[in-house]
Amino acid sequence: MAAQASGHVLTPQGFVRGRLAHEQGRIVAIEGTPVSEAEARSGELPLILPGFIDCHVHGGGGRDTMEGGDAAATIARMHARHGTTSMLATTMTAPLAEIQAALAALGPVCRERVPGAARVLGVHLEGPYINPGKLGAQPDFAKPASLAEVHALHALAPIRLITLAPELPGNLELIAELRAAGFRVQIGHTAGSYEDGVAALERGAGGFTHLFNAMTGLHHRKPGMAGAALAHAQYAELIPDLLHVHPGAVRVALRAIPCLFCVTDSTAAAGMPDGDYQLGRQTVTKCMGGVRLADGTLAGSTLTMDQALRNLVLELGLPLADASRRVSTHAADYLGLEDRGRLAVGAWADFVVVDPRELQLQRVVAEGEEVDLEDV
């Protein structure tokens, strides 16, 4: 017998007042009467939205992806309790042996979803193919990219996304080879110029890693990598914690990049009290709502995707349907996933239930499984 959720369901066509039914992990029916977003937000019925998709997760719940072992399972459970139903486990720049160990631990988690957890769709390899002059919070183990090395790492765990700096020797030429081999490439941790960004996009790079952060900024006579993204990108990540990027710059990006999508760039400190945590080889400190290295450099975030949604709607004023696409649908489309990030018959039963005004989570369902929220 199919399980159900009732309320205002956000379908690709808009809200309907009715019910969503799911069975064996898939949506089997959505029935109801169309209503406007204003009606849905002003009523008393809960809102049913697509589960969140986070393409940039370093950690959470006190654990870091680079630890290996059961860290990824803990991270995926913690983020599921905040509405993330699919995610990419994200690595740090490190010696090759440490990256290999992290991916070896991630392989089984990618093959089978952990109960009560977000689906780990694969790996976001953020480094080591980045510019040593734009490390941000990454340790100083940047190195040239190699297709053979990427294939060897991919054999340990499926790599979905690779961040690289296109201005480094050989990287620009490698982008087309990586794309031909089925890897999606993002531009990030880069000191490259506007021209480097355009050239990378022309060769198949698909987007930008945490837009504005760890890249050359926009100046009207020297538009930089941020300018290349704003002028030409269809997709880009952005961290909407309102700390990494000023709300005004977020608004610029929303107007310029059609499918801008949100990520958390979350660390082990997400969901944890203030204190010291690990981010790869680095010790980071959570305090005053952020995470920093000892020198004050921002080092990932404590953001969760439910808070990202609230920031977009309640702080920046986006319509809820638009905000939902930016925490779900656009990321799914970017990764080529037609059965996630949307509520439609045949899609995975990944959804969240929130109250209509404050958008606080009431339920999370991942591939048809009810997630226990009591630890939120």
TrEMBL record:
Q: What class of enzyme is it?
A: hydrolase
Among Pfam families, the record links this protein to:
Amidohydro_1
Instruction: Give the Gene Ontology MF terms in alphabetical order.
Output: N-acetylglucosamine-6-phosphate deacetylase activity
Q: Is Metal-binding a UniProt keyword of this protein? A: yes
Which CDD domains has this protein been placed in? NagA
- Hydrolase among keywords: yes
The residue ranges of the Amidohydrolase-related domain are: 48-358
Keywords from the UniProt entry: Carbohydrate metabolism, Hydrolase, Metal-binding
| Gene3D superfamilies documented for this protein | Metal-dependent hydrolases, Urease, subunit C, domain 1
Q: Tell me which InterPro entries the record gives.
A: Amidohydro-rel, GlcNAc_6-P_deAcase, Metal-dep_hydrolase_composite, Metal_Hydrolase
Entry's SUPFAM superfamilies? Composite domain of metallo-dependent hydrolases (SSF51338), Metallo-dependent hydrolases (SSF51556)
Q: EC?
A: 3.5.1.25
Concerning its family, UniProt says:
Belongs to the metallo-dependent hydrolases superfamily. NagA family.
What is this protein's name?
N-acetylglucosamine-6-phosphate deacetylase
Q: Which organism is it from?
A: Roseateles agri
**What lineage, starting at the top, does this entry show?**
Bacteria, Pseudomonadati, Pseudomonadota, Betaproteobacteria, Burkholderiales
- From the UniProt record, report the name of the gene that encodes this protein: nagA
